[in-house]
């Protein structure tokens, strides 16, 4: 390597050595500067990742809370649906009974064996 940098027969001067040392120092400074920028960038990335991890944890917690709320709403909806079905069944049964009573009433009225008189009681309000 020495022959390539310094051809044979030429003496190596102090200026040449100083020049080479300055180049090496410049290269080392550049490498250190690049390394420092890379370390700063690495620290910045780590901070960003920590922020993202915090956001993901918060999102997961919010999702869990929302899931619990939705489950409660679904349970209430199921209860309401069951109650609506029960009420519908009772109304249908009552409707059948009312039709049966109406039918019986019509039958009795046609036979003239039964008369229905409806009285309306009116209340007098006191002032």
Automatic annotation (TrEMBL):
<dbReference type="GO" id="GO:0030154">
    <property type="term" value="P:cell differentiation"/>
</dbReference>
<protein>
    <recommendedName>
        <fullName>Muscle-restricted coiled-coil protein</fullName>
    </recommendedName>
</protein>
<dbReference type="GO" id="GO:0030017">
    <property type="term" value="C:sarcomere"/>
</dbReference>
<keyword id="KW-0963">Cytoplasm</keyword>
<feature type="signal peptide">
    <location>
        <begin position="1"/>
        <end position="26"/>
    </location>
</feature>
<keyword id="KW-0732">Signal</keyword>
<dbReference type="GO" id="GO:0005901">
    <property type="term" value="C:caveola"/>
</dbReference>
<dbReference type="GO" id="GO:0010468">
    <property type="term" value="P:regulation of gene expression"/>
</dbReference>
<keyword id="KW-0805">Transcription regulation</keyword>
<keyword id="KW-0217">Developmental protein</keyword>
<keyword id="KW-0221">Differentiation</keyword>
<keyword id="KW-0517">Myogenesis</keyword>
<dbReference type="GO" id="GO:0007517">
    <property type="term" value="P:muscle organ development"/>
</dbReference>
<keyword id="KW-0472">Membrane</keyword>
<dbReference type="Pfam" id="PF15237">
    <property type="entry name" value="PTRF_SDPR"/>
</dbReference>
<feature type="coiled-coil region">
    <location>
        <begin position="28"/>
        <end position="62"/>
    </location>
</feature>
<keyword id="KW-0010">Activator</keyword>
<comment type="similarity">
    <text>Belongs to the CAVIN family.</text>
</comment>
<dbReference type="InterPro" id="IPR026752">
    <property type="entry name" value="Cavin_fam"/>
</dbReference>
<keyword id="KW-0175">Coiled coil</keyword>
<keyword id="KW-0804">Transcription</keyword>
């Amino acid at each position: 390597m020495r022959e390539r940098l310094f051809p044979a027969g030429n003496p190596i001067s102090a200026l040449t050595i100083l020049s080479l040392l300055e180049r090496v120092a410049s290269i080392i400074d550049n490498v250190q500067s690049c390394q420092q920028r890379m370390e700063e960038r690495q620290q910045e990335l780590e901070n960003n990742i920590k922020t993202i991890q915090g956001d993901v944890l918060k999102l997961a917690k919010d999702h869990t809370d929302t899931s619990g709320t939705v489950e409660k709403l679904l349970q209430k909806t199921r209860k309401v649906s069951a109650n609506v079905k029960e009420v519908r069944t009772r109304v249908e049964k009552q409707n059948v009974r009312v039709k049966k009573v109406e039918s019986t009433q019509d039958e009795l009225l046609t036979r003239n064996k039964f008369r229905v008189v409806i009285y309306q009681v009116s209340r007098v309000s006191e002032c």
